[in-house]
Amino acid sequence: MTEEMKKTEELDRKKRVILIGRSTAGKTTLCQKINNEELRYHKTQTVQIINKNMIDTPGEYLERTSYRGALVVTSTEADVILLVQDATEEGTMFPPMFNSMFAKPCVGVVTKADLADEAQVERAKKYLKNAGAGELYVTSAVTGEGVKELVDTLHLL
Length: 157
Prior knowledge:
By secondary structure, this protein is of the alpha/beta class. The chain contains six helices and six strands, in the order αβαββααββαβα.
């Protein structure tokens, strides 16, 4: 088997995920951390494919209900839906049972855990559970908390 065929086979085994969350929830930063890139803020303007297995979406697709159809269409390319919730956010953009829009497993990811207290993290987890997320991961792109577990469970690398 050639090296190219091995790489193709490896990519085929990786799960493809779509990250959905409001603007500044930490979707892009989480992608950067997973890929061991330098953490730098940049506003995602369009759907971006990262490493052939992560689909990073603009927050506006969730924030504006008229754009949510774009999430459904884009999600057809994914195996797993990642609902991303900032732990420090007072509210959520995910309506109850948001997962019912997708015929895929939904995983909840709490971000910015390093900036939040325990009550804030628990509130974020509750938002994600109400949205229909199954498994939950509490993460910090700055400290790395929870990122390895997320990557290992979803076979992202």
